Amino acid sequence: MTRAFDPAAAGVMIDRADSADRDDAFWVERISSGWHVRVHIADVARVIPAGSPADIQAAGRGWTVYLPDRTIRMLPADRQDAAALGAAPVPTCLIELHVGVDGAVERARISRGRLRHGIAMSHREAAAALTRPIDLGPQDQMLRDAHHLALALLARRRLSGALVLYDLERGWATGESGVPRPVSEYERNAAYIIVQELMIAANEAVARWCIERDLPILFRNHRVGAVAPPREQLLDDLTASAVTSAVTRERLTAILRRAEYGPQVGGHYGLNLAAYTHATSPLRRYADLVTQRIVLAAVDGRPSPYSQGQLQEIATAINTRARELKDRKSQRLKQAATDRAHRRLRDGAAELAGLDAAAFHRVLKTAAREGDPPPALVEEITRRADAGLLAPRDICWALLRTQGERWRPARERLCRLLADDPPLAVTVVAMYGQLTGADPLWEIRDIGTVQQPLFAVTVTLVCGDTVHTSPRRIGPGKREGRQQAALGLAAAMAGLPDASQDLAEEPAPPAPGDIDQPTVHKNPIMTVNEHTQKGRLRDLRWDFTSHGPGHEPDHTCTVTATCAATGAEFVASATAARKADAKTQAAAALLDRLTAAHADAPHTG
């Protein structure tokens, strides 16, 4: 007997055409206030009891592994088939969302459901339905509504600062951590975006639902490294065309780390969400199965089947296994790349000349790490430098990360290259800082006047116990000074003659009494700062203390500075009800003492 179609119990399952582990389905309805979404998740907890042999196998494996030639499934085949979604009616964990027209999830409800009309589609079939002129079934209009919803969810995530990119034409999309990864050829269409955006919304809704009930689950937490640039810069990187380059992905991976599971909420940096979890793939990830057991127990009014301690043990086991597998994979890939680089180095000049930029960089990096290079590599570096084919990362490695006399001809050529293109020196020094975790420290002093701006610049790199400092370089602008200082630092680190130079003459040092008296139209703080910027005062320090009742304290400011010409230290203090007033009065007192000291000093001539 044919069942009457019921949209409330229907769901489209988008996956590979030959998929045997379909564990999520969705149905989207357009309503006047936005969209109503139903996400059906396979009720794996019903089929796999905690502590059963199948559960023990799933816990040990952690997740399903998809390899080019085979699939290592998390669950035994018979248990997976019994729990998977399909055409036959099956119990589900139902996540219902009400999404506003602006893409905001306004309400969420989780309950036990039943999928009676499961419609299996491949990504290509789902994408084709979006532009088909004639509907072949109720799923066609639904998919168009789902596509509009996915775009609204995506737009909201982008506005909120999520690290998200879909470049399906070139086959790249960001994973949850914000690092671009390749997308399978069959997924490079709009259906991929629909599935990703709906599942992210569902997972976030589950996390928030559990927080509202103070219900510990396996939250998915993601943090960023302390050396990461501001989020705005990472977003700019994601929109740049270079985002698919290996070096950019390597840098983002190092900065953005890997998300991990935990029973406490830690927030998710890549998605820019306060809370997130994995709940939509219980056939393929053990964390999703554990969370499903907890959520369905709460729906039934039962206590959680896991204690906080048990959740922590499960999270630690999954996180540890993920790190170990990642490390082993990384070592395999590095060893394979090193083996290829060795073969290419042995093959000589003809092989090196034919390498593309990425392959050449891998060869150069391998040789730099291992010692003396073959003459053919030094010749190829010089050839590429002459032809303008070296990337800044190549220059950084060959100039600053090599040792020995056999590298010297290449380093000398690259120093001349930087001397001809000083802005490139700043890039190379900054890149070296990124590679070593030693950010360049720039000291820029204004030593000129309004009529003739001059800046003295020094740059320092602290690499462990070694400190590299550039010569002090004078430029008519900060940019020019930075370029020459970076050029001098690169030469010093490479052990080569300094090609940097001053681009202007340094002014004569100030006379001992060259301290302006503050006037009624000049702020004393500004005057003190100007003297410091021009080198007349040094070691300037402002200290504040507060005393008196908490509702009406007095603030004392003490300013200390040393006269550059005489080496004498001067100290002045002032007290006022406002910190700003105390600072202004202390600055005025300091200037008075400087002026008085000048008046008392003996004069000649």
Helices and strands in order:
Layout: E1 10-14, E2 24-31, E3 34-42, H1 44-47, H2 53-61, E4 65-66, E5 71-72, H3 77-83, E6 90-100, E7 105-115, E8 117-121, H4 123-129, H5 138-160, E9 166-167, E10 172-174, E11 180-182, H6 190-212, E12 219-221, H7 231-239, H8 246-256, E13 260-262, H9 286-300, H10 308-347, H11 349-353, H12 357-370, H13 375-387, H14 392-400, H15 408-420, H16 422-436, E14 441-446, E15 455-463, E16 466-469, E17 473-475, H17 478-494, H18 524-533, E18 537-547, E19 554-563, E20 569-576, H19 579-600
Helix pairs in contact: 5-6, 10-12, 12-14, 13-15, 14-15, 14-16, 15-17, 16-17, 18-19
Write down the overall mean pLDDT. 88
Total number of helices: 19
- Structural Rg: 33 Å
Give the count of structural domains: 3
What's the number of extended β-strand segments?
20
Oligomeric state of this protein: single chain
In what order do the strands lie side by side in the largest sheet? 2-3-6-7
Describe this structure in words.
The chain has helices spanning 44-47, 53-61, 77-83, 123-129, 138-160, 190-212, 231-239, 246-256, 286-300, 308-347, 349-353, 357-370, 375-387, 392-400, 408-420, 422-436, 478-494, 524-533, 579-600; strands at 10-14, 24-31, 34-42, 65-66, 71-72, 90-100, 105-115, 117-121, 166-167, 172-174, 180-182, 219-221, 260-262, 441-446, 455-463, 466-469, 473-475, 537-547, 554-563, 569-576. It is an alpha+beta fold. The chain has 3 domains: 7-306, no CATH class; 421-507, Double Stranded RNA Binding Domain; 524-600, Double Stranded RNA Binding Domain (2-Layer Sandwich), CATH 3.30.160.20. The strands form 7 sheets. The chain has a 4-stranded antiparallel β-sheet. Strands 14, 15, 16 and 17 form a 4-stranded antiparallel β-sheet that branches. It has a 3-stranded antiparallel β-sheet with strand order 9-10-11, with no helix packed on it. A hairpin with a 4-residue loop joins strand 9 and strand 10. This is DRBM domain-containing protein. Keywords: RNA-binding. Pfam families: RNB. Residues 523-596 form the DRBM domain.
